Amino acid sequence: MNKLLKAYDGKVRMMNNNKIKIEKFFKLLDVPNYETLKNLSKETGIPTSRLRYYNDNMILPMGEDMDRLCAYTGYSKELIEISLGHISPEVQSWIINHGEDILKEIAVPDLKVSEVSPVFNTPFGTLFHDDCVKVLVSMPDESVDMVFADPPFNLNKDYGDSIDDDMTKSKYINWCEVWIKECARVLKPGGAFYIYNLPYWNTFLSNILNKYMNFRHWIAVSMKGLIPVQGKLQPEHYGLLYYIKGEKPRVFNKQRIPLVTCRHCGGEIRDYGGKKSSLNPEGISISDIFMDINPVRHKKYKNRSANELPLRLLHRLISLSTDAGDIVLDPFGGAGTTYVAAEFLERNWIGMEIGDTDIIIERLEKNERDRELLLKIEKDSNLLFTEEQVRLRQKNNFWTYEKLRD
Ligand SMILES: C[S@@+](CC[C@H](N)C(=O)[O-])C[C@H]1O[C@@H](n2cnc3c(N)ncnc32)[C@H](O)[C@@H]1O
Question: Fewer Cβ in 10 A, N or C end of the chain?
C-alpha cells in the first residue's frame, strides 16, 4: 500500500508502506520484511502500526505490549530493554564498575587518520572537499575557537550520491555522535559549539553534547512559513544548540539589535517592559529567541536551491563567540555561509563539504553581493531602530528614541 507523506520540509513524497526500516527493535524480533511484521502482529496482537512506531522511533514498549513481547520472545523485560539499547540506572552503574572487563571483551574502533589536502585557500580560510569526519580526525586537539554545524536533517533530501539523508534513526544519531565528538575534541577550552537542526533531532544531539560540554542555551530561531503537520502544533522555529567547552566562554561579545517592529506600519511587535526612555540607544540585547532571522528567499542573495542559512545568523554567532583572528570551524559547508561571514569579520576558518564545493569557491571569489548585505547587517546592528524603521515610525506617528529625548 502506498501513502502520500508530507515531511517537515514541506516536500510531499510517495511512501511505500510495505518497505520497513530495520532498527534494533525489528532486529531483536527477527523482522526482516513486511510479511514477518504482519505475522508478528498476528502472533502478539499488537497492530503493525504500533510495532513500526516502536521500531522507527526507538521507543520502548510498556505495559501490556511489553508483556506480550516477553511472552512471544521468552525474554525478560530487562533483557528486552537492554537489547533495545535502553540502559537503566542499575545497568549503567554495573557498566561503570566493570569498564576494564568490558574493554577486554570488545574492540573499540579507532578512527583512521588519513592524508587530506585542501581544495581551496584564502588568506583567512581553508576548504576541504571531503567527508568532514575524515578531515576532523586529522586535526590536532584544541585547535579551533568556535564550531558551527548545520548538518543534513535526515529528511531524505537529495544531496548527491555521497550522502545518505534517509538513515535509520539510530544510524543518524550514531553518525552525529562521531562528528560531534571530533568537533568537541578540536575545540579549544572556552570555545563555543553551535548546532542548528530540527528541534526533534536536537533532543538527541543534546544528549551527545552533554557528555562533552556545558549547555548554555537552546536558541529558538523563529522561522515563518514552515509547513503545518496534521495533529501537531504549528512549527515556528528551528533549534540552535549553544554549548561551551569547559566552565565559561572565552569570548562573549554581547550583541545588540533593533526592536522588532511590524514591517508594514513600524509599530512594536513585542512589549519589552520598562520605560521606553530607559531603553539602551544601542538596541536591545539578543535573547534566546531570534525573531529577526529570515530565510534566504530572494533570488539575488540565493547561492543554492535550498538549505542556505542567512548571513545574519552566522554574522551574529561569530561576532558573539569569537574575536578577530580566531578560528571558526564548520564541517558542513553547503553554500559556504559560515566562511563568507568569517572572512568579512576577519576570522580564520576551516571548512569541509563532501558535495559540490564550486558554489562555495565561486561565492568566496565573487563576494560583492555578500559584502553589501553584511555591511547592511552591521549598519543595522547596535541601534534601537534602523533608518527604515525610523522613517516608517515617523510616518505613522510612533515614538522614536530621538523624540523621547527631546
Ligand atoms: C544543511 S547543509 C549546510 C548549509 C550551510 N550551513 C549553508 O548555510 O550554506 C549541509 C551540507 O552538509 C554536506 N554534508 C553532508 N554530509 C557531509 C559529510 N559527511 N562531510 C561533509 N559535508 C557533508 C551536504 O552536502 C550539505 O551541503
Answer: C
Q: Tell whether ligand 1 has an atom less than 6 A from the beta carbon of residue 178.
A: no
What distance in Å separates the CA atoms of residue 133 and residue 117, rounded to the nearest whole number? Answer: 14
ipTM of the complex: 0.99
> With 70 as the cut, is the pLDDT of residue 303 above it?
no
The two most distant CA atoms of the chain are separated, in Å, by 82
Q: Is 197 in the pocket of ligand 1 (CB under 6 A)?
A: no
Q: Is the distance from the beta carbon of residue 132 to the nearest atom of ligand 1 less than 6 Å?
A: yes
Task: Tell me if 334 CB under 6 Å of ligand 1.
Answer: yes
Q: What is the pLDDT of residue 10?
A: 46
Can you tell me which residue has the cell 515614538?
A: 399
Query: Measured in angstroms, how far is the CA atom of residue 94 from the centroid of ligand 1?
Result: 39
Give the chain's domains with CATH numbers: 2-105 (1.10.260), 120-388 (3.40.50.150)
Percentage, residues of the chain above pLDDT 90:
70
Ligand 1 centroid, distance to 351 Cα (angstroms): 10
- Alpha-carbon distance of 190 to 16, in angstroms, equals 48
Which residues, 6+ apart, have CB-to-CB distance to 337 below 8 Å? 308, 309, 310, 311, 313, 314
Mean pLDDT across the stretch 89-117?
A: 87
User: DSSP label at 268?
Assistant: B
Q: Is residue 154 in contact with ligand 1, taking CB distance under 6 Å?
A: no
Ligand 1 center from residue 399 Cα (angstroms): 44
Burial 317-348 (b: 16+ CB within 10 A, else e): bbbbbbeeebbbbbbbbbbbbbbbbbbbbebb
Ligand 1: distance of its center to the CA of 308 in Å?
10
> Residue type at 109?
P
Determine the Cα–Cα distance for residues 254 and 283; give it in Å rounded to an integer: 11
Angle at 308 between CA 307 and CA 314, to 5 degrees: 130
Give whole-number Cα distances, 41 to 33, 50, 81, in Å: 13, 9, 20
C-alpha angle 305/290/214, rounded to 5°? 100
pLDDT at 300: 64
Centre of ligand 1 to C-alpha 372, Å, is 25
